[in-house]
Please model this.
Amino acid sequence: MAGAEFRYYIYTLNEYHWKPHEWANLSRHEKNLIIAAIDLRVAEEQKQKKKAERDAKRH
Model:
């Protein structure tokens, strides 16, 4: 498993409790879809965190 792909698997393990065979049995297309969804989720979470930090500084 490539380094970047491994990080995404660790994310699915921690967030969704996927077993290694569940990740390994996905096609490349399915993995790419999941990786894109994770990227969107993480980006949104970071955006919300920054917004919360800005709002906390204002008050």
User: Anything to note?
Assistant: Residues 28-58 form the longest helix (31 residues). The mean pLDDT is 93. The CA atoms of residues 5 and 35 lie 8 Å apart. Helices lie at 3-16, 20-24, 28-58.
